Amino acid sequence: MELVYAFLAGAFLTNSVPHLVSGMMGNKHMTPLAKDSSALVNVGWGYVNLLVGAFIFSLADRSLTSVLSFDNYSIAFLLGSFAVALAAAWMFSNPNARFPWFK
């Protein structure tokens, strides 16, 4: 179960980055809430992802330095991070990107 926690923590923590950066720069960016969410919504969504990722990370009862140890835990964390980064790159390379529930 610890490896699942690591994968999910990597995914959520990585997903927080574009939302926090876009929001702090005052830019609109897509969230699950709207196609063009405001900067404030993006900062909020980024912090939700950050807090969920940190909480999931804490469930594994590991330290932050364990991510750099290159054991199974760190590989699972990095795979979760990589999966979200690839999905975001693929999705946002399309100028008409949208989630399926946006009509």
| N-to-C SSE string, H for helix and E for strand | HEEHH
Main sheet?
Answer: 2 strands, antiparallel
Radius of gyration: 15 Å
**What's the overall average pLDDT, rounded?**
89
Distance between the termini: 37 Å
Write down how many β-strands occur, each being a DSSP E stretch of 2 or more residues: 2
Structural class: mainly alpha
What would you note in describing this structure?
There is one protein chain. The protein has 3 helices and 2 strands, in the order αββαα. The chain is mainly alpha-helical. The chain has one domain. A hairpin with a 2-residue loop joins β1 (29-31) and β2. α1 (2-24) packs antiparallel against α2 and α1 crosses α3 (72-92). The mean pLDDT is 89.
Layout of secondary structure:
Blueprint: H1 2-24, E1 29-31, E2 34-37, H2 39-59, H3 72-92
Antiparallel strand pairs: 1-2
Helix pairs in contact: 1-2, 1-3
Short description:
By secondary structure, this protein is mainly alpha-helical. The chain has helices spanning 2-24, 39-59, 72-92, and strands at residues 29-31, 34-37.
Any key phrases for this structure?
103 residues; mainly alpha; two-stranded antiparallel ribbon; 3 helices
